[in-house]
Amino acid sequence: MRVRMLAAAWRGLLDVLSPPLCAGCSLLLAPSEEGFCGGCRPLLEPLSDARRRGAAYAFGGPLADAIRAWKYGGRSERARPLGALFAAAVEPWAGDVDLVMPIPLHPRRLRARGFNQAAHLAAAAARTLAVPLEVGTLRRVRDVGPQAGLGAQQRAINVRGCFASRAVGAPRVLLVDDVRTTGATFAEAIRALRAAGAHQVHVMALAGSEE
Ligand SMILES: [Zn+2]
Prior knowledge:
single chain; alpha/beta; Rossmann fold; four-stranded parallel beta sheet; two-stranded antiparallel ribbon; 8 helices; 39% helix
């Protein structure tokens, strides 16, 4: 009881020190709002065929702003609302996957950014699905540089052979990334995981663009 009161007091103190802001537009959130404000939340576009498309939301608007601020703008507090959004979106996978894995960053990029956004989303998904999170099995063995600005064919060529995988711990894998563009990265990772013993590899990104 005492621990719970202390935890509540601590959360209250944190809210005073850094009040919760909208992940999209950085406006102060009302007490009834969670993650995104009343102006931004209606602009999030859930994809109706998310499982088939391998992405939960359309990339754009406040979601794109939140992802960019998180990855490139040093706004680490965006991790929580985006993790919550993704966790809710993976619920339909319950019972269909044995473990969750993130698309890894190359160690050099991981050092530069300080965190892997896909690993954070994968952890949120694993908690929701109550299955293990497997980090380190799938590895980037080649740093391919940015994919932005490349066409679909160039992207596929660019990522060829960039992943390697140790033996996969279970037959059905949910592979997670923050943004799915042409699917070239997922396709290459699937190839590495299949070669390492995965029977089924499902993919899911928080946001999907193009196509
Ligand atoms: Zn907002």
